[in-house]
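Hey, sorry to bother you again with one of my protein questions. A protein chain has come my way and I'm curious about its shape. I'm sending you its amino acid sequence along with the backbone structure tokens. I owe you a coffee for this, so here goes:
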Amino acid sequence: MSKIEHLQHDGARVGYRDDGEGRPLVLVHGTGGDGEANFSGVMPYLSARRVIRPDYAGAGLTDDPAKALTLDRLAGQVLAAVDHAGVESFDLLGFSLGAAVAARLAARQPDRIERLVLVGGFVTGADPRSQMQFRHWADLARRDPASLARLMLLTGFSRAFLAGIDDMESVVAEMVASSNWQGIARQAELDLQVDVSSDLADIRAHTLVLGNQQDQMVDPKASIALADGIGRTTLDWIDGPHLALMETPKPIAELLTRFFHD
């Protein structure tokens, strides 16, 4: 059972989960997820680590009344959780929007982060397809959450995975009931503004970039752009969709274990 902690930071009540013992590893979730939803599948494979999972604004354990989100605000919330946990030096993994948050944090805190993993990340959300997708997400999050839940399932998971779900509408209903849709709208609006191109050269951590080859949410080429912009980087691939961390956590955990033990 995770230990759940809260702290006050810059007008927000930030929550995080704290599990295990060992070298600290901080996991940063993506748009529409939280530390539990995105990473619960991989947690059993990280039992040798102390794992800290902050929820940033718009998600899970965190309550933030700010209307507009920025990468700096989310990175500040993640770092505040790490500081509250009493951690100085740590490894860091960011997924999707969380990869942009992690890249910003790694660029600003180079002396504290030894190893960095960016999964399904992107340098910028400025390309036309991303702009259309994230505007659509923000619109649906505010006026039709069930339709956004269905869209995220259809584009986030593989065809084979979805074919194994007998009662899809029950899954949709659970997503609608358990998600912070106004928060997701604010996160999607931040996705529109993401640009970490100026951060990449300042990242000094040994970095693993993991792209999803079957990704329908983020162009797999975005992982190549991330890797090209960072110095000490290994680029590897997951043969899966954007939400492969949730669909097939074991092979991803194996890649992480290999990277952390190199």
